[in-house]
Structures are given as structure tokens and as C-alpha cells.
Write a structure and sequence with these properties.
heterotetramer; A mainly alpha (105); B alpha+beta (384); C mainly alpha (425); D mainly alpha (169); A: 105 residues; mainly alpha; elongated; D: 169 residues; 75% helix; globular
Chain lengths: 105, 384, 425, 169
């Protein structure tokens, strides 16, 4: 009970791991590209949470700086991902990731 | 104009443009209850995002069968009905109808009546353009001009009210001339109105003509070429803004317009801004005509000799006048009885509305509103 | 009783915001006060907008409910609350229900960091301005949700327009804000601040409002922000998301009754919020005009009389209009009401002359006055400008304001660097 | 200013985050997923505040909730979702995916139970007042090069997105 009421770094890490798992499940099982992209955002956020938690644990700010870089990366990823999605939708008129198989022979 | 000019070959109106995302064509039902369709016009818009791929007008929500009514009324009885077509320009409608029947009867209204008719019709043109300006600006988002134009239109309506007791559906003219002599002080009031109104046009222009947003919203919007105008039968300020100097007051003078000195303002680009400028200039020209007519108002009778029971000789006549919105024509076939055998109206709004599709293709939704405003349609006239 | 007075006195003499002092009770009191003040401001704004617009358009505006229509907003509020609340059958119920709440929450939450005075803020955050921009940009989510959930075409187009509009203006707005924040770093330590209170204090320390700083750079940045904030709040001439002549009512076409009034409330409080940002960043926040030109205790005293004088002026207007009311038994209640309203305003004005009160209140007064100036601008825009078209608005955001913002930012940074390194090493 | 009632808010916020995350990956309608994700992101921003990282929290709200998610919603509205909502939601490899995720979860549990002693009991509490200034100094000092690369990445992403989404180039 004591450990439940005292929030340590581990608590944040477990939360991050749970989020990460949710993201992984989303990426691996969903068919809708939009939701897959959102699951990737979940994964990135789980990473961010860990980075910031470690930053607090060590008392330095490197973790926070890296979290900002990850957010930048997420923005770039979302822009390109959604661009691909639009191009894909225009060609196939679907958003199902199963049908992204043009390279398969 | 030659026949080669009267085709729309370069405009493929049958096949729609392909949308950006194929599955995503948006069909929007604009109207019949919509703040910017000036009544009960229904426009079915096919959109690609905001871009208009094509549109279709559905009319008839205000159809009252005016033409059919005309076949069941005597010539005199039908006169008030025409006021209800273009209720914004009731006097012009009346002038067109009276002159058509006068041609059929082969009589001509006396000079004084002609002068008064010109004065009232031109006042009506100003009133119609004022209403157009106010609502058009309101559609584009400028809410203030509406109140200014309505304030000034009120003065014209007051003159009407004093002259014939009605403000909107005036029934001002009779076949053969006028029923009432002008009231005392009529000339003075008209002159007062002219001096009052001249600075007001400048006021409207000050609000809009050089307004950056107004220019951006109207320049190169709803452009229509002179060829397309002619092919679609578009008349009035819309035609003149495309650069065609065609005004029935000069081209086929009626009433006694040939006695007055005025110009036909034209535009070059045929876009919404040019139509705006043309109508503003027309208001100034109307002021000029009224000034001349009032200054030279002759004395004399106001009614020609017309029989009490009108039985025009059998035959047909088409007569058209330049209404504020374009060519307003009446085609009457008489079989020698007291009622027309067939009566057909060529309303300017109805014909001009055809150009909406051509003008809106490839533009944005916001432009559709601007174009409907600039066509200056009155649904009472479109549906009759 | 004695303890209570002591408690209040302890607050009055503190020099920290309740949030920073960790005082939950006073923070709660402040939240209540801000909420009440906002509601009153929205009601007043509603009345003023209709009256001012009406007078611009040669008409009278509301005249029936109460003297000069003073009670019209209240009548409208009652009407809206009593109206049937319709939800379209095909709507996405939960999202439809959430959307107005999100918009209102976003509009109200930003007031947590708005500094009405050095101690008159709910809290002072290290990231104050960032928080304000972030939370106020959340309101677009509510708009998009409302448009999508209505499952109708007009709202959908309104929502799409709104999100595209926000994307094109947020960037220019951010750049303008950054150039103002850069100016806060022109002190001995060379460190700037994002805290709303800190920004005003920097202006106080530098003896210059940022709108006049590095003339004309501050002015240009302010101009960019002033344009972007109108677009951000969806007001004329950028009211594309709810353009009534094109999209009937845009994103809130399907809303009625109480839900609609929430959108209305949010729109007006968002206007006040972004005006507060502009006032804080460029117009010296709570500082009185000419703090260094007209300094000295005499001027201080003179300026401290302003709040009271303003209220007395309002009271005088009320009494003047009371005297002009028609002397008819039917108007008796209205006349008495107007006189009573004037009397209340007059009493408030007299109380404001008490030095202990006026010292505390004049910060709030100056801040509100500046915000009220912006509110008038909003009404003025609405009365004068036609509406921009969607693509023109995007073009203006990306091709005019964004390069301008970048240029101003670079110039501000260079000038600031020059000043620190060369002129005052 | 120290966070108050840390355990309560931690459990509340992590509950919101986890429920939001579950909703993200289970909803049929992408709009609902996006809204759930926004809730998750906002809760995470609050957790950042509890971790003495106000600047990251602010960036999270502005960029993620205000920017990226609006982009997502915009695209969802652009593509028609009616068809994909009626279809099967999970792909054919969902068994493999779930087992892989379970294995990963097992790995996490193993690592954390084994290595939980290396984390100090009491996390450091940091000064929050100049957090932004310190992060800025770091970004423009130590991480200058990384910052420039990130801006380059964004530029490439912009160009890439435009090229992808454009009909004809």
C-alpha cells in the first residue's frame, strides 16, 4: 500500500509501458490506416513519458529536450503519413492497410 | 451577332469535372430556405471540397401562373398582376405591359404621361439597384450598406406612396397613360430626392468601391464572356458588364427615352466587380434622366383616348423594355376579344439565372453566393 | 470574525497571485470572480454589440426590453434556455453533446493565467503565454467536433474551414508572440519569460510598452497578432466558419437552445481571451498609460481617479437618459429602473474613490479598459468589412502574415542582439 | 510550486490515459479514436506538469492536441470513412499481433520486476520557475546540431507531404 501511495519513477515507467503496449496492439491488429497512425502516436507518447520521467529522476533536462525532439518527429511523421494516406485513398478509395499491397507479386 | 458566336461549344456543361478525391463529391442543397438565395431559389451544388463542380437550379416554388391568369382577365384587369412578378421593380413591369397593350390597340400615351412614366420608371430602377446593392453586399458579408440603401430607397417609396397610394406593388400606369395627375409638389419632391441622392451614391461607393476585401471578393468572380452572355440570352447590366453596349432604351427606344441624353455604362471583364460598377453608373445615369424629365415636364392630358372595354384587333405583338434587371418582354396574342388569347412574359431574371452554372463552375462556394447576388434575381419574376 | 478580517487583510497585503502562493481558497474565490466577471462581460458585450452596430447602421437596436434594451441580453438568455434543445436523429450523440462543452472549457480555462494586475490573476504560470495559446487553440477541436457530429453538410464545411483557417493563422500568431517574448529578455540577466505577469513586469521595467519597442517592429508584430486573433476567434471579416450567407450558420447550424448559447458564450469569451493576450503582450497589461512620461505622485493620484470618474460618468449618462424618458405611466418602471441602475453605478464609482480600494482596483480597470477597446474594434470590423473568401484568407495567412512574422522575428532578434552587444555591452 | 495530491492525480490521469488508449485502438469510428487520443494527450500533458516539465506540457498541448490532432481530424473528414466503418476492423494477423504484444508485455514485466531496485525511491524535485529558460539554453546550446537537423526533418516532411498529397506535380 505504501508503494501505491508513493509515486516513483517506476510508476511512470509502467504507465509508459502500458501505453506502449496499447500502441503496439493498435499498429499490429487494426486495419484502418488512420487508427494505425494514431497508434504510432500512442507509442511515441509512451516513449516521451519515459523520457520525461527519467529526466525527473536524474534531475537533468536532457530527457525533456529529447521529448521535444520526439514531438517534432511525431509532427513530421503525421504530416507525411497523412499525405501518404491521401495519396493512397485517391488511388484505391479505401483506408484499409490490408490493401496496401501494390508491391506484392 | 453571327451564329458562330451563339454557341457554348467551349463550355462542356454536360460532363462534370472530376473531383479531387473521387469518392468525395459533396452535394449540397442550397435553399429553398437559405439566407442568400433571395427568396425560394433552390440550388443543388455539387462540390469538391469548396470548389463548385456544377450546379442545378430548381425553381417554381413561387409559381402562381401569372401568364395563365392573364388569359382569363381582361386587359385592364390583368394590369395589377404584373406588379407581382418583379415586386422590386413593379413600375417597370407596369410600363412594359401598358406599352405592349397600347401597341396592340395602336394608341400612344400623351407626352406628359410619357414623362411621368419615365420619371417613375427610372426612380424604380434606382430603387431596384439599391435593393440589389444592399442584399448583394449583405451576401458578401458587409452588413452595413443594406441599411443605408434601405434608408434612401424609402424616399423613392414615399414618392410612390404619395402618387398612387402604394409603396411596392404600385399599379402606377394605366393602358393609355396615367389615371392620376401628379400630386402638388411632385416635381419639387423628385428634384429634392435627386439632390439628396447624388451624394448617397458617392457614400455607397466610398464604402465598397475601393474596399480591399470587396474588390478581392468580386474581381474575377463569376466571369462571363460577351459570347456566353449572348448565347444564354443574358441581358441587362450583366450583359453590359461583359462589354456589350446593348440597352433597349437606346437600341429600341420606347416611351420617350430618345428625347433624353444619357450614356450606357459598360464593363470589360464581365466579372462581379464590373457588374457592380455598371449598376452604380446606371444609378447615376438614371438620376440624369430623371433630372431632364422633371425639368422638361410638359403640361397637357395624361390619358390617351382608349375605349372603356378594350377589344384590340386580332394579332400579336412583342414589346420589350429595359427593366432594371434586363430585357422585360411581353408577347400578347389577341383574338379580338376582351381577353388576351395568349400572354407570355420574358422575364429578365429567369433568363439571367441560366448563366449561374456557367458563372459558378470552378469557383468556390462563397462565390456562388456572390454570383447569385450579382445576377440580381427576383424569384417572383423567375417563377411568375 | 476577527480572524476572517485578518485573513482578508493577509491577502490584501500579499504580493503573490493566489495560485503561486498555493492558497486554494483565494484561488477558488478568484475563479468565481473571473467566471462571474466574464459572464457579465459577455452579457454587456452582447448588448453593446447590438447597440453599436445598430447606431452604425442608422437604426436603434433593442429598445423594448428595459430602458434602451438594457435587459435584452437577459431576455435572450431566458429565451435560449427555454427553447427546445434539438439533436438531429443522424447526429453522433456523444460528440454532438461534447463539442460545445469543449469550446466553452477552452475559452474559460485560458483565464487561469490572464493577469488583471500583478496579484490579480488566478495563478502565474512559468509557461503562461504558451498555455494560453495552446488552450485557446483547443477550441477549434470543439468546432470541428460540432461540425462533424451534426452529420450535415453545411456544418461539415464550416468545420473544415475552421480547422484550415486555424492552421494558417496559428503560425503567424506564434511568430508575432515570439517576437514580443524576445523583447522581455532585454534586461541585465538577459533571460526572458513566458509568464504573463513577467511579460508585463518586463514592460514596466523597460519603461515602454512593447507596441512602441523598436519602432516599428513592435507595431508590426502587434498588427500581425491583431489580424490573426480576429481569424482565431472566427469573427468578421474572417467569420468563414459561420458565414451566415454561405453556410447558413456554419458549424453550429444544427445547434439550438442552450447548446447554441454555449457556443455564443465561448465565442465572446474567446474574444476577450485573445484581446487579453494582445493587451498583455503589447499594450502593457495592467499598466496605466504613460507610466514614465507622466510619472510622479501627482500623476499617479490623477490616474487613480480614473476608475471612479468612469463609473460616475456612466451613472451621469443613466441619469441624463432618465430625465429624457417619456413622462408616461407606462414608462414609470423603466424610468425607475434606469435611475436605480445609475444609482448603483454611482455608488460603485464613489466607492472606487476610496484610496485603499482604488489602489487595488485600478490595475483591473486599466486592463479591462484596454480589452474593451479591442471589443469595440471587433464590433467596428463587423460593421464595416465584407467577408473574406476562404482561399483569400489562407493566402493572406501563409503568404502575407507568415513572411511578415518571420521578418519581424529576425529583425527583432537582430536589433535586440545589437542593443545588448554593441550599444549597451 | 509543488504538485498537490500526487498519488490521487497520478492514478486519475493514468486511468484517463489508459482508458483513452484502449478507446483509440478499439473504436470503429476514426473520429472517436481521434477524440480519445486527444483526451489521452491532454492527460499526458498534465502528467508532464506533475513531472516538473511545464514547457514540454505546453508544447504537447499546442503541437499535439492543437496541431497534429486537428490535422488528423481534417484528413479523416477528407477521406470517406463510411465504407471502412462497415468492414472488418481487425486484420487477419491479429492473433500473431496480439501474441507479439503479449510477449512484449511479458518482457516489460520481467525487466521491471527484476530491475526495479535500480530506480531511486524518491525522485528529485526540480526547480520549475526557470524550466523554460533552461530547456531553451540546452536546445540552442548543447543540442544545437540536433535542433538544426530536426528543422531539416520538418522541412523534408513538409515537402514530402505536399508531394504525396498533390494530384499532379
Amino acid at each position: 500500500m505504501e508503494s501505491m501511495l508513493h509515486i516513483t519513477t517506476l510508476h511512470y515507467l509502467v504507465l509508459g509501458a502500458a501505453l506502449f503496449l496499447l500502441g503496439v496492439i493498435g499498429v499490429l491488429t487494426r486495419r484502418n490506416v488512420v487508427i494505425v497512425l494514431m497508434s504510432i502516436e500512442l507509442i511515441l507518447n509512451a516513449v516521451n513519458l519515459n523520457l520525461v520521467a527519467f529526466s525527473r529522476m536524474w534531475g537533468g533536462l536532457h530527457g525533456q529536450v529529447f521529448a521535444i525532439f520526439v514531438i517534432t518527429d511525431a509532427a513530421a511523421e503525421a504530416a507525411v503519413g497523412l499525405g501518404i494516406l491521401i495519396a493512397f485513398f485517391r488511388n484505391k478509395e479505401t483506408v484499409n492497410i490490408d490493401e496496401v499491397n501494390l508491391l506484392k507479386w | 451577332m453571327t451564329d458562330s458566336n451563339t454557341s457554348l461549344s467551349h463550355l462542356d456543361l454536360e460532363t462534370p469535372e472530376k473531383p479531387f478525391l473521387d469518392a468525395n463529391e459533396l452535394v449540397i442543397n442550397m435553399g429553398p430556405q437559405h439566407p442568400a438565395t433571395h427568396g425560394v431559389l433552390r440550388v443543388i451544388l455539387r462540390l469538391d471540397g469548396e470548389k463548385v463542380l456544377g450546379l442545378e437550379c430548381v425553381i417554381g416554388y413561387l409559381h402562381r401562373g401569372v401568364e395563365k391568369i392573364g388569359e382569363h382577365r381582361t386587359y385592364t384587369m390583368f394590369n395589377p398582376y404584373v406588379d407581382r412578378m418583379d415586386y422590386v421593380a413593379a413600375v417597370s413591369n407596369g410600363l412594359g405591359y401598358c406599352e405592349t397593350v397600347e401597341r396592340l390597340l395602336n394608341v400612344e400615351a400623351p407626352p406628359r404621361a410619357q414623362h411621368v412614366r419615365v420619371i417613375l420608371t427610372e426612380l424604380n430602377r434606382i430603387a431596384s439597384h439599391q435593393l440589389w446593392l444592399g442584399t448583394h453586399a449583405l451576401d458578401i458579408g458587409a452588413i452595413t450598406p443594406l441599411f443605408y440603401t434601405f434608408r434612401d430607397r424609402e424616399e423613392i417609396l414615399k414618392i410612390y406612396e404619395k402618387y398612387c397610394g402604394a409603396r411596392l406593388t404600385t399599379h402606377a400606369f394605366r393602358i393609355g397613360g396615367l389615371q392620376y395627375e401628379t400630386y402638388t409638389g411632385f416635381e419639387k419632391e423628385v428634384k429634392n430626392f435627386l439632390t439628396f441622392f447624388r451624394p448617397k451614391i458617392d457614400e455607397y461607393e466610398e464604402l465598397l468601391t475601393t474596399n480591399r476585401i470587396w474588390v478581392e471578393r468580386t474581381k474575377n468572380v463569376g466571369t462571363i464572356s460577351a459570347e456566353d452572355c449572348i448565347a444564354l440570352g443574358v441581358t441587362g447590366p450583366v450583359l453590359r458588364a461583359s462589354g456589350v453596349k446593348w440597352d433597349l432604351r437606346k437600341a429600341q427606344p420606347y416611351a420617350n427615352y430618345k428625347n433624353f441624353d444619357f450614356e450606357i455604362p459598360t464593363g470589360q471583364n464581365g466579372d462581379t466587380y464590373d457588374r457592380y460598377l455598371v449598376r452604380m453608373a446606371e444609378m447615376r445615369q438614371s438620376v440624369r434622366i430623371i433630372q431632364q424629365a422633371v425639368d422638361a415636364l410638359p403640361e397637357g392630358p395624361i390619358m390617351a383616348k382608349v375605349p372603356k372595354v378594350m377589344k384590340p384587333p386580332a394579332g400579336e405583338v412583342y414589346h420589350s423594355i429595359e427593366a432594371p434587371k434586363g430585357e422585360l418582354g411581353y408577347f400578347i396574342v389577341s383574338d379580338g376579344s376582351t381577353q388576351p388569347y395568349r400572354l407570355r412574359v420574358r422575364p429578365p431574371s429567369f433568363v439571367n439565372l441560366q448563366a449561374l452554372d456557367v458563372m459558378c463552375r470552378g469557383q468556390l462556394v462563397a462565390d456562388v453566393v456572390a454570383v447569385i447576388g450579382t445576377l440580381d434575381i427576383v424569384l417572383g419574376e423567375v417563377d411568375r | 470574525m476577527h480572524e476572517i478580517i485578518q485573513y482578508i487583510e493577509s491577502y490584501l497585503t500579499s504580493d503573490k497571485t493566489p495560485g503561486a502562493a498555493g492558497n486554494m481558497f483565494w484561488a477558488l474565490v478568484y475563479i468565481m470572480l473571473v467566471f462571474a466577471g466574464l459572464s457579465v462581460a459577455v452579457i454587456a458585450m452582447n448588448w453593446l454589440e447590438r447597440k453599436i452596430l445598430a447606431h452604425m447602421q442608422v437604426r436603434l437596436g433593442p429598445m423594448r426590453v428595459g430602458p434602451h434594451g438594457l435587459l435584452q441580453p437577459i431576455a435572450d438568455a431566458i429565451k435560449l434556455l427555454l427553447k427546445e434543445d434539438i439533436m438531429p436523429a443522424e447526429a453522433d450523440g456523444f460528440v454532438f453533446w461534447m463539442a460545445p462543452l469543449i469550446v466553452v472549457l477552452a475559452a474559460f480555462t485560458v483565464f487561469v493565467v490572464v493577469p488583471f494586475g500583478p496579484t490579480h490573476a488566478i495563478t502565474d504560470m512559468n509557461i503562461g503565454i504558451l498555455f494560453m495559446l495552446g488552450v485557446s487553440s483547443l477550441s477549434v477541436l470543439g468546432i470541428v467536433m460540432a461540425g462533424w457530429a451534426s452529420n450535415s453538410h453545411y456544418p461539415l464545411i464550416g468545420a473544415l474551414r475552421s480547422s484550415a483557417q486555424m492552421v494558417s493563422y496559428e503560425v503567424a500568431m506564434g511568430l508575432a508572440v515570439v517576437s514580443a517574448i524576445l523583447m522581455t529578455s532585454l534586461n541585465a540577466e538577459g533571460t526572458g519569460t513566458l509568464s504573463m505577469i513577467g511579460i508585463v513586469q518586463a514592460q514596466q521595467a523597460q519603461g515602454e510598452w512593447f507596441i512602441f519597442k523598436f519602432f516599428p517592429l513592435g507595431l508590426i508584430a502587434f498588427f500581425i497578432f491583431a489580424v490573426a486573433m480576429v481569424a482565431e476567434t472566427n469573427r468578421a471579416p474572417f467569420d468563414l466558419a459561420e458565414a451566415e450567407s454561405e453556410l447558413t450558420a456554419g458549424f453550429h447550424t444544427e445547434y439550438s437552445g442552450f447548446r447554441w448559447s454555449l457556443f455564443f458564450l465561448a465565442e465572446y469569451s474567446a474574444m476577450i481571451a485573445v484581446s487579453s493576450i494582445a493587451v498583455t503582450l503589447w499594450l502593457g497589461g495592467w499598466l496605466r498609460p504613460f507610466p514614465n512620461l507622466l510619472s510622479g505622485s501627482t500623476w499617479d493620484l490623477l490616474f487613480s481617479l480614473f476608475p471612479g470618474v468612469t463609473f460616475l460618468l456612466f451613472a451621469a449618462i443613466c441619469f441624463y437618459n432618465t430625465a429624457r424618458m417619456p413622462k408616461h405611466p407606462l414608462f414609470r418602471i423603466q424610468t425607475i429602473g434606469l435611475a436605480g441602475f445609475g444609482a448603483v453605478l454611482g455608488v460603485i464609482g464613489l466607492v472606487l474613490f476610496v484610496p485603499a480600494v482604488s489602489v487595488r482596483v485600478q490595475d483591473i480597470f486599466w486592463f479591462s479598459t484596454k480589452v474593451a477597446g479591442f471589443m469595440y474594434l471587433y464590433i467596428w470590423y463587423r460593421g464595416t468589412f465584407p467577408r473574406y473568401r476562404f482561399d483569400q484568407l489562407m493566402r493572406m495567412g501563409w503568404k502575407v502574415l507568415l513572411p511578415m512574422g518571420l521578418g519581424v522575428l529576425i529583425l527583432t532578434a537582430s536589433v535586440a542582439l545589437l542593443q545588448q552587444k554593441i550599444w549597451h555591452p | 510550486m509543488a504538485p498537490v495530491a500526487t498519488p490521487f492525480f497520478f492514478y486519475l490521469l493514468s486511468g484517463i490515459m489508459l482508458i483513452g488508449g484502449i478507446l483509440v485502438i478499439t473504436r470503429k469510428n476514426p473520429v472517436h479514436s481521434a477524440l480519445a487520443l486527444i483526451v489521452t494527450l491532454l492527460a499526458q500533458a498534465s502528467i508532464y506538469l506533475m513531472l516538473y516539465a511545464p514547457f514540454v506540457a505546453g508544447v504537447q498541448i499546442i503541437l499535439y492536441a492543437g496541431g497534429i490532432m486537428v490535422l488528423f481530424l481534417f484528413v479523416i473528414m477528407l477521406v470517406s470513412i463510411e465504407r471502412s466503418m462497415k468492414e472488418r476492423q481487425f486484420n487477419s494477423q491479429w492473433v500473431v499481433g496480439m501474441s507479439a504484444a503479449t510477449a512484449l508485455g511479458g518482457l516489460f514485466i520481467a525487466v521491471y520486476t527484476k530491475g526495479k531496485d535500480i530506480f531511486p525511491d524518491h525522485a528529485l524535485s526540480m526547480v520549475e520557475d526557470d524550466n523554460t529558460q533552461k530547456v531553451a539554453t540546452m536546445l540552442y546550446g548543447q543540442y544545437m546540431f540536433a535542433f538544426e537537423i530536426a528543422s531539416l526533418l520538418l522541412l523534408v516532411a513538409i515537402i514530402g507531404a505536399v508531394v504525396m498529397a498533390k494530384k499532379r506535380i
